[in-house]
Design brief:
The chain has 225 residues and is mainly alpha-helical. It has helices spanning 3-17, 30-39, 45-58, 62-66, 70-77, 83-101, 109-112, 120-129, 140-148, 157-167, 173-186, 205-209, 211-215, 218-224.
């Protein structure tokens, strides 16, 4: 089977398993998604979603964030970790968006990664979820699961993105990455995968090589859902 055919089968299986998958970060517009994604670095989406309601209630516009008191932003996002760097990035990016982009979040990866603290993961998420453009959001779930499935053989995010762009239909690449996140949290959990109930087990070297080992984790994983 060619690799591209394998990728399509895997994508179809995930679509059947998670038809309603969406981005787990809660946001109402491009600015909120941009900031929420920046906060999610080295932090869980669940934690970010607990922090952003108060943050977005107090700061609503580009100008609000651009002129915000640094210490106040720090306090509001403290529990997300690396709060000093993230607070500075948020203020600086909003100042740059006002000065260089007329208070509009750019719709291209090339422009987005010019913003302070914005990498390709964040840029791909914004262009895909906000602007409906082809995107490949490479996070830890994407890297780990695509390696297990033999779709890629690297842990370098940029190389993973390039490899997946060559394999996936552009119109479905973004939602494919969201489904990988859902699958990584529900079934293919790092260090304790529930291979016995995995819709992708037939394509996964780890599941095929050690089915008995992973079957023993099934009851434990089910109890966590």
């Amino acid at each position: 089977m060619r690799l591209i055919e394998r990728a399509i089968l895997i994508m179809d299986a995930l679509e059947k398993e998670y038809p309603q998958a969406t981005c787990s970060l809660e946001s109402k517009n491009a600015l909120e998604l941009l900031i929420a994604t920046r906060l999610s670095a080295q932090c869980t989406d669940e934690r970010v979603n607990k922090v952003t309601p108060k943050l977005f209630a107090k700061y609503k516009t580009f100008l609000d964030f651009a002129t915000a008191d640094f210490s106040d932003i720090e306090k509001l996002i403290y529990s997300c970790g690396f709060y000093k760097t993230k607070a500075r990035n948020i203020i600086d990016m909003c100042q740059m968006l006002i000065e260089n982009y007329d208070s509009v979040v750019p719709d291209t990866i090339e422009e987005l990664i010019k913003l302070p603290g914005v990498g390709r993961k964040t840029a791909n998420l914004v262009v895909g979820d906000i602007y409906g453009k082809p995107s490949i959001v490479v996070d830890t779930h994407c890297i780990r699961i695509t390696n297990l499935l033999g779709l890629v053989s690297t842990k370098d995010p940029a190389k993973v993105e390039t490899a997946l762009r060559a394999l996936l239909p552009s119109e479905k690449s973004g939602i494919f990455c969201h489904r990988l996140v859902w699958h990584g949290r529900a079934v293919c959990v790092a260090r304790r995968p529930a291979c016995a109930r995995c819709c992708l087990a037939g394509w996964c070297d780890s599941a095929l090589k050690a089915p008995m080992k992973h079957n023993k984790t099934l009851d434990k994983d089910c109890a966590c859902l």
